[in-house]
Amino acid sequence: MPVVASSVGALPEVVGAAGILVDPRDPRRLATALRAAWTDDELHASLVAVALERAGQRRTWTDVARETRAIWAEVARPAPLL
Q: Within a 10 A sphere around the Cβ of 66, how many other Cβ atoms?
């Protein structure tokens, strides 16, 4: 099932290329995106294919914790002296 979601918050990261992201304050764009997702067979099939691919790449909380720790380790390194 294709996804049309808001382009704010964490949704862009979660949805990625598996959906259409729209500004939540733009009802015309939302209507256009919904119409396209349901009436454009090629777009619909493409979104479904990407969504199925992403579903096969499920991340765990362990993955998130490992990545978060790596980011914190990177930013916590002392800056080189000039």
A: 11
| SS percent in the chain: helix, strand, coil, step 5 | 65, 10, 25
pTM: 0.67
Q: 3 with 16: CB under 8 angstroms? A: no
Place of tokens 């914790």: 65
Q: Using CB atoms within 10 A of its CB, is residue 4 exposed (0-12), middle (13-18) or buried (19+)?
A: buried
pLDDT value of position 60 = 86
Which tens digits make up the pLDDT trace of 45-70? Answer: 999 999 999 888 878 889 889 999 99
3 vs 60: CA distance, rounded Å: 22
